[in-house]
């Protein structure tokens, strides 16, 4: 794990070609499987901790090179940021956050599809689609933590398909901003332009939540 040159990730351009000079055994693990190494039943072993920490940081460092804004930063900055970000895999239909909950995490979407819906108080099927994000979006981040941490989420966010994202939690924000101050400035500028409603929002017409995304609301406690 310590040798980043021996770690390759599908879905991203490779920086070098690897050729085996003798029969070799390789450990193949997807990003989704990488996130499962954090599960309690296996995270206590030293091998799992070493593998998860090293591979996750290397994956995040390389992924940032292909994300808008971050792609303009030097590799040394990517390396610093990789230690401040988490990696989260979201299954299709998974609820990422709930309407009216405090903003506590900003997500940087790498691949997949997220929709944010404003859920009605009557719990009816017809709801309002506020925003959509895809890995190919110009600004593929959502969550709003860096825009105004005193506010709450405007809607419920669901993964429309299997989705992979980087996560920045409140505890890491201060250090993250010191390393990449321009990111917070960009987030706040976008929020100001669109008055707190995401720039990827669709029209305000009522839409119908897909059947596989009808997840029971989680009431604030």
TrEMBL record:
Cyclic nucleotide-binding domain: residues covered: 69-177
CDD domains per UniProt: CAP_ED (cd00038)
InterPro entries documented for this protein: cNMP-bd_dom, cNMP-bd_dom_sf, RmlC-like_jellyroll
Domain of life: Eukaryota
Protein's UniProt name: Cyclic nucleotide-binding domain-containing protein
């Amino acid at each position: 794990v310590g040798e980043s040159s021996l770690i390759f990730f599908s879905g991203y351009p490779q920086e070098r070609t690897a050729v085996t000079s003798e029969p070799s055994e390789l450990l193949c693990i997807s990003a989704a499987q990488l996130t499962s190494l954090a599960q309690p039943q296996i995270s206590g072993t030293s091998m799992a901790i070493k593998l998860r920490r090293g591979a996750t940081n290397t994956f995040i460092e390389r992924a940032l090179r292909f994300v808008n804004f971050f792609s303009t930063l030097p590799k040394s900055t990517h390396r610093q940021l990789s230690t401040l970000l988490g990696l989260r895999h979201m299954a299709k239909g998974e609820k990422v956050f709930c309407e009216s909950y405090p903003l506590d995490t900003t997500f940087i979407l790498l691949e997949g599809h997220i929709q944010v819906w404003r859920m009605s108080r009557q719990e009816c099927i017809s709801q309002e689609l506020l925003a959509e994000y895809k890995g190919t979006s110009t600004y593929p981040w959502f969550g709003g933590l860096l825009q105004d941490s005193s506010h709450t989420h405007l809607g419920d966010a669901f993964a429309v398909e299997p989705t992979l994202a980087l996560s920045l939690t409140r505890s890491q924000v201060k250090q993250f901003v010191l390393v990449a101050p321009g990111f917070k400035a960009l987030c706040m500028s976008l929020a100001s332009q669109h008055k707190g409603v995401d720039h990827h929002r669709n029209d305000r017409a009522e839409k119908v939540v897909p059947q596989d995304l009808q997840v029971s609301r989680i009431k604030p406690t």
